[in-house]
Amino acid sequence: MAIQDVYNIDGVKVSEIDLSDEIFNVPVKQHVLHQVVTMQLTNRRAGTASTKGRSEKRGGGRKPHRQKGTGRARAGSRRSPLWRGGGVVFGPKPRSYVYKAPKKVRRQALKMALTSKLQDKALIVVDKLNLETVKTKRFVEAMGTLKTMEALIVTDKKLENLELSSRNVPNVKVVRSEGLNVYDILKFRQVILLEPSIKQLEGRLLS
Question: Which three-class secondary structure state does DSSP give residue 192?
């Protein structure tokens, strides 16, 4: 097991914690991380793009001009895709882009992402981050003592003061352990884990 230092909100080491090798020390495979991140980003697509075909465009019931004798190409409708204002050929229609990678793959990718942060020394464990009031200045001071201003903070429960104090700080995001995902872990430079959230992650990933 890897031994990680635990800090308090003032950046002082208060204890140590053993991190499970089954979560924080697994082989990191780039193609698995890529697969899961691609899935997450694809599932965010709205899929609302839509165009009208010639049958959906208004008008076009009358033949624009007679078939012969004008010197022009024959035409049967002003809504032809060849005409300005006509329908679109094979244009996009509303659709869902959602797909899911296998559950085991998603779980393994989450372990790999956490392992990569630990290997890069970009994982910080804090005993608690309870703020007495909603105050952005106090939150920024706490981040400064932890020597990071770009981090994903993982909590074990709803900490309203923390969430409200951090919402206007750029490059910082607070998520609860059940919402932790591969994309967010890789997106942020550092990951701050509240000590109680580690037990929840172990229960989620080792069950």
Answer: strand
- Confidence band (pLDDT; 50, 70, 90) for 134? very high
177 with 136: CB under 8 angstroms? no
The candidate with the shortest Cα–Cα distance to 153, out of 197, 89, 111, is 197
37 domain-assigned: no
Q: For the chain, give the mean pLDDT.
A: 93
Q: Which residues lie closer than 8 Å to 185 by C-beta, 6 or more apart?
A: 110, 113, 114, 117, 152, 191
pTM attached to this predicted model: 0.83
Question: Mean per-residue pLDDT for 131-137?
Answer: 92
Paired with 154 in beta bridges are: 175, 193
CB-based burial label for 133 (10 Å; 0-12, 13-18, 19+): exposed
Q: 17: buried, middle or exposed (CB in 10 Å: 19+, 13-18, 0-12)?
A: middle
Whether 18 and 80 map to the same domain: the answer is no
Whether residues 90 and 109 share a domain: the answer is: no
DSSP 7: E
**Amino acid letter at 91?**
G
Other C-beta atoms closer than 10 Å to the C-beta of 99 total 9
* Neighbouring-strand partners of residue 136: none
Structural domain containing residue 182: 2-31+101-205
Task: From 160, 176, 159, 169, select the one nearest 139 (Cα to Cα).
Answer: 169
